[in-house]
Amino acid sequence: MTTTSQGGQRLAQSRLAILDYLQRTRHGALPLQPDAPQAHEPSQASPWRGLREAGRRHWEGHPARLVAGLAAPWLGQWGRRHPLAFLTLAAAAGAALVMARPWKLVSVTGLLVAALKSSHLASLLMSLMAASRSHPPGRGPR
After folding, report:
1. What angle do CA 60, 102, 114 make, to 5 degrees?
2. In this structure, what are the phi and psi dihedrals at residue 34, rounded to the nearest 5 degrees?
3. Cα–Cα distances in angstroms (integers) from residue 3 to residues 11, 17, 72, 76, in the given order
4. What is the dihedral of CA 60, 61, 63, 66, to 10 degrees?
5. What pLDDT sits at residue 40?
6. Closest Cα partner for 76 from 67, 84, 86?
7. Which of 7, 47, 130, 135 is most deeply packed, by most CB within 10 A?
8. Is 30 helix (H, G, I), strand (E, B) or coil?
9. CA dist 125 to 17, 49, 50, 54, 107, Å?
Protein backbone atom coordinates (compact mmCIF):
# COMPACT_ATOMS: atom_id res chain seq x y z
CA MET A 1 0.00 0.00 0.00
CA THR A 2 1.32 3.46 -0.78
CA THR A 3 1.57 6.33 1.66
CA THR A 4 -1.07 8.35 -0.20
CA SER A 5 -3.66 5.58 0.15
CA GLN A 6 -2.79 5.20 3.85
CA GLY A 7 -3.22 8.94 4.27
CA GLY A 8 -6.54 8.78 2.45
CA GLN A 9 -7.74 6.00 4.73
CA ARG A 10 -6.70 7.95 7.81
CA LEU A 11 -8.50 11.02 6.47
CA ALA A 12 -11.68 9.00 5.83
CA GLN A 13 -11.52 7.51 9.35
CA SER A 14 -10.99 10.95 10.80
CA ARG A 15 -14.00 12.33 8.93
CA LEU A 16 -16.18 9.45 10.11
CA ALA A 17 -15.05 10.00 13.69
CA ILE A 18 -15.90 13.71 13.48
CA LEU A 19 -19.34 12.98 11.99
CA ASP A 20 -19.99 10.38 14.70
CA TYR A 21 -18.99 12.87 17.40
CA LEU A 22 -21.21 15.60 15.97
CA GLN A 23 -24.17 13.25 15.64
CA ARG A 24 -23.83 12.03 19.23
CA THR A 25 -23.46 15.52 20.69
CA ARG A 26 -26.50 16.82 18.77
CA HIS A 27 -28.66 14.10 20.31
CA GLY A 28 -27.42 14.84 23.83
CA ALA A 29 -25.25 11.74 24.20
CA LEU A 30 -21.60 11.97 25.03
CA PRO A 31 -19.24 10.50 22.46
CA LEU A 32 -17.99 7.09 23.50
CA GLN A 33 -14.40 6.21 22.78
CA PRO A 34 -13.10 3.13 24.60
CA ASP A 35 -9.42 4.07 24.28
CA ALA A 36 -9.91 7.73 25.25
CA PRO A 37 -9.24 8.91 28.81
CA GLN A 38 -12.16 9.74 31.08
CA ALA A 39 -13.97 12.94 30.14
CA HIS A 40 -13.74 14.25 33.69
CA GLU A 41 -10.25 14.84 34.96
CA PRO A 42 -9.60 14.82 38.72
CA SER A 43 -8.64 18.49 38.47
CA GLN A 44 -12.24 19.25 37.44
CA ALA A 45 -13.67 17.67 40.61
CA SER A 46 -14.66 20.56 42.83
CA PRO A 47 -17.49 21.59 45.08
CA TRP A 48 -18.72 23.89 42.29
CA ARG A 49 -19.30 20.97 39.94
CA GLY A 50 -22.39 19.77 41.79
CA LEU A 51 -23.73 23.29 42.04
CA ARG A 52 -23.22 23.85 38.31
CA GLU A 53 -25.00 20.57 37.52
CA ALA A 54 -27.89 21.46 39.83
CA GLY A 55 -28.18 24.87 38.18
CA ARG A 56 -28.21 23.28 34.75
CA ARG A 57 -31.00 20.90 35.79
CA HIS A 58 -32.97 23.76 37.30
CA TRP A 59 -32.66 25.78 34.07
CA GLU A 60 -33.98 22.82 32.04
CA GLY A 61 -37.32 23.10 33.84
CA HIS A 62 -37.43 26.88 34.14
CA PRO A 63 -40.27 28.69 32.31
CA ALA A 64 -37.92 31.43 31.07
CA ARG A 65 -36.00 28.79 29.10
CA LEU A 66 -38.87 28.58 26.62
CA VAL A 67 -38.83 32.35 26.08
CA ALA A 68 -35.05 32.34 25.67
CA GLY A 69 -35.25 29.45 23.20
CA LEU A 70 -37.88 31.22 21.12
CA ALA A 71 -36.17 34.63 21.18
CA ALA A 72 -32.60 33.46 20.50
CA PRO A 73 -32.96 32.70 16.75
CA TRP A 74 -34.81 35.94 16.06
CA LEU A 75 -32.35 38.03 18.08
CA GLY A 76 -29.45 36.29 16.35
CA GLN A 77 -30.78 37.11 12.90
CA TRP A 78 -31.59 40.68 13.83
CA GLY A 79 -28.16 41.11 15.45
CA ARG A 80 -26.41 39.89 12.29
CA ARG A 81 -28.39 42.29 10.10
CA HIS A 82 -28.13 45.33 12.41
CA PRO A 83 -25.12 44.87 14.72
CA LEU A 84 -24.84 48.52 15.75
CA ALA A 85 -28.52 48.79 16.65
CA PHE A 86 -28.28 45.47 18.52
CA LEU A 87 -25.31 46.71 20.55
CA THR A 88 -27.04 50.03 21.26
CA LEU A 89 -30.21 48.27 22.42
CA ALA A 90 -28.20 45.93 24.66
CA ALA A 91 -26.32 48.86 26.21
CA ALA A 92 -29.57 50.76 26.78
CA ALA A 93 -31.20 47.71 28.40
CA GLY A 94 -28.17 47.26 30.66
CA ALA A 95 -28.17 50.93 31.64
CA ALA A 96 -31.90 50.82 32.39
CA LEU A 97 -31.38 47.75 34.55
CA VAL A 98 -28.60 49.45 36.52
CA MET A 99 -30.63 52.64 36.94
CA ALA A 100 -33.79 50.77 38.05
CA ARG A 101 -31.87 48.62 40.60
CA PRO A 102 -34.50 45.87 40.84
CA TRP A 103 -32.33 43.95 43.30
CA LYS A 104 -33.02 46.66 45.89
CA LEU A 105 -36.78 45.99 45.68
CA VAL A 106 -36.57 42.32 46.65
CA SER A 107 -35.65 41.34 50.19
CA VAL A 108 -33.41 38.39 50.97
CA THR A 109 -36.16 36.95 53.16
CA GLY A 110 -38.60 37.12 50.26
CA LEU A 111 -36.17 35.29 48.01
CA LEU A 112 -35.58 32.63 50.67
CA VAL A 113 -39.33 32.07 51.14
CA ALA A 114 -39.85 31.86 47.37
CA ALA A 115 -36.99 29.37 47.05
CA LEU A 116 -38.36 27.20 49.85
CA LYS A 117 -41.85 27.22 48.30
CA SER A 118 -40.46 26.24 44.90
CA SER A 119 -41.37 22.79 43.64
CA HIS A 120 -37.93 22.54 42.06
CA LEU A 121 -36.16 22.79 45.42
CA ALA A 122 -36.41 19.04 46.06
CA SER A 123 -34.90 18.17 42.67
CA LEU A 124 -32.21 20.80 43.16
CA LEU A 125 -31.24 19.35 46.54
CA MET A 126 -31.29 15.80 45.14
CA SER A 127 -28.97 16.88 42.31
CA LEU A 128 -26.56 18.41 44.80
CA MET A 129 -26.60 15.32 47.00
CA ALA A 130 -26.16 12.97 44.05
CA ALA A 131 -23.22 15.00 42.75
CA SER A 132 -21.54 15.04 46.16
CA ARG A 133 -22.08 11.30 46.59
CA SER A 134 -20.68 10.41 43.18
CA HIS A 135 -17.51 12.49 43.75
CA PRO A 136 -16.26 12.07 47.32
CA PRO A 137 -13.76 14.74 48.40
CA GLY A 138 -10.15 13.91 47.61
CA ARG A 139 -10.93 11.02 45.29
CA GLY A 140 -12.09 12.77 42.14
CA PRO A 141 -14.75 11.37 39.82
CA ARG A 142 -15.11 7.65 39.31
Report:
1. 50
2. -65, -30
3. 12, 21, 48, 46
4. 40
5. 46
6. 86
7. 135
8. coil
9. 38, 14, 10, 8, 23
